Amino acid sequence: METNNELLTKLITRFKTLEDPRRKAGQRHQQEFMLLIVLFATMSNYLGYRAIGDFAKKHKEELIALFKPKKARIPSFSTIRRFLKSINIEEFKEIYKWWLQEIITSKNAEESSPSSNYYPIDGKAVRGANKASKTDHVHLVSIFSAFKQVVVDSAKVDAKSNEIPCVQELIAASDLKGVIFTLDALHCQKKQPLLL
Questions:
Q1: What integer pLDDT is reported at residue 108 of this predicted model?
Q2: pTM of whole model > 0.90?
Q3: What residues form DSSP beta bridges with 140?
Q4: Of these four, 123, 128, 165, 178, which has the most CB atoms within 10 Å of its CB?
Q5: Which of 33, 36, 41, 22 shows the shortest CA–CA distance to 70?
Q6: All residues at 6 or more sequence positions from 68 whose CB lies less than 8 Å from its CB, including other chains
Q7: What digits encode the pLDDT tens for the residues 150-183?
């Protein structure tokens, strides 16, 4: 499975390295194809298993023409759901983060733009994402590329902490050099210098 887009072909190649937890017998869909559908669907605001299935149905012809899957078939939402529940989500996240870095550092991203060096960092509470907890929310912090309009990285804030140490760790691990981070005034702490 290859495309005319170099960055997309790189992503497909990396998806092939992800461990496939399924039995070899009876596999109808390539894992990289299902992961691309999930990625495209969520980037298009189709959130949840049924919504991802709806995205796949709605864009069936385009997906088949672009990726030429085996037997020209699209996986159902239940197939995608079973598959997503079985993969190593941390490995998937690392591949996705790598791909975003590839996009940001590609030649296309080197266009001169005032926003190309700006990376806002902010935290948000995601309601209803933590049913097991009394707080019923998860607090996430994200680094956002203002130029490419994508989240570069994100992390969950420890329930017993605030977002200051989490943001410092994100910046230190981001590999972003010579850029401007914009943050809330909360991060102007004399006793907690930013890790750079």
A1: 46
A2: no
A3: 124, 156
A4: 123
A5: 33
A6: 1
A7: 788 888 887 767 788 888 888 888 878 778 888 8
CA of 196: how far to CAs of 42, 147, 170, 177, in Å? 32, 22, 10, 9
3 state SS of 182: strand
DSSP code string of 119-178: EEEEEEEEETS-TTSSS-EEEEEEEEETTTTEEEEEEEPPTTS-HHHHHHHHHHHS---S
Q: Which residues pair with 122 in a beta bridge?
A: 142
CA angle 119, 142, 188 (to 5 degrees): 70
Q: Is 134 exposed, middle or buried (0-12, 13-18, 19+ CB in 10 A)?
A: exposed
- 118 membership: H or E segment, kind and range: strand 118-127
Query: What is the Cα 92 distance to its own chain's centre?
Result: 8
Q: Which two three-digit tokens encode residue 82?
A: 């079973």
